[in-house]
Design brief:
8 strands; Translation Initiation Factor IF3; about 230 residues; Alpha-Beta Plaits; elongated; five-stranded antiparallel beta sheet; three-stranded antiparallel beta sheet; 4 helices; alpha+beta
């Protein structure tokens, strides 16, 4: 790989019109998550649609009341899915038999204090939530972390470009183009309710943000001695 790079740089020097150096840089920062989004669903089945809807609504209202006890504003609650549909059962090869109506109400609850996640899950389960579809951890100051990672990536790319320039015996010029890609996966945990309802298995881990850049530098062929 070093031989290829040196040959490539030699060609660049021989062709001033294309005298450039490209370098990739990467910068990563990590932070302990300080907020979480919980995705939960309440499912109720009754003989009629209105009965199923009322039963579901009653449990939803209980969830709202209980999470308010933890200081969660309704601004932090969003309905993701609300559906009503008939349910049928099948036995052997017989025609399906109507079993009632099902109402599904899925919602997202944003929690600003991750230390409360376990207790809030206990509270919503006791209110009637029968599915925990996922928990995603994130950080509030993500933009600040992205800026730090970006600076580190640019420093890394310039350092590599300078090393290549020094090895080739040329002078590194100005950057002419920069491209960027970013990865900031959210720490998540997906689990359905267990029979025990144990919700203390929550570990937020760390949130990692990585910025990758590709920078093209000119080779400075000016003569400093003039």
């Amino acid at each position: 790989m070093k031989t290829i790079v040196m040959v490539f740089l030699g060609l660049l020097v021989a062709n001033p019109a294309f005298a450039q150096i490209q370098a990739n840089g990467s910068g990563s920062v990590s932070a302990k998550p300080d907020m979480a989004t919980v995705h939960v669903t309440i499912v109720e089945q009754r003989e009629s649609a209105i009965e199923a809807f009322r039963a579901n609504s009653a449990k939803v209202n209980m969830v709202f009341a209980n999470i308010k006890e933890f200081g969660i504003s309704m601004d932090n609650v969003k309905t993701d899915d609300l559906s009503i549909y008939p349910e049928y059962t099948r036995v052997d090869n017989k025609p399906p038999v109507f079993a009632g109506y099902v109402v599904r109400n899925g919602m997202s609850i944003t929690i600003d204090d991750v230390t409360k996640v376990g207790n809030i899950l206990d509270a919503v389960i006791s209110s009637g939530v029968n599915q925990i579809n996922g928990i995603a951890f994130s950080v509030k100051n993500k933009e600040d972390l992205i800026k730090k990672a970006r600076i580190l990536a640019v420093i890394d790319a310039r350092s590599k470009a300078q090393m290549l320039a020094n090895s080739a015996g040329v002078k590194l010029g100005s950057a002419t183009s920069i491209s960027e890609s970013a990865t900031f996966p959210r720490m998540s945990m997906n689990k359905m309710m267990s029979e025990s309802g144990d919700t203390n298995m929550v570990a937020e881990g760390k949130s990692n943000i990585t910025i990758n850049v590709n920078i093209t530098f000119d080779i400075d062929d000016s003569d400093d001695t003039k």
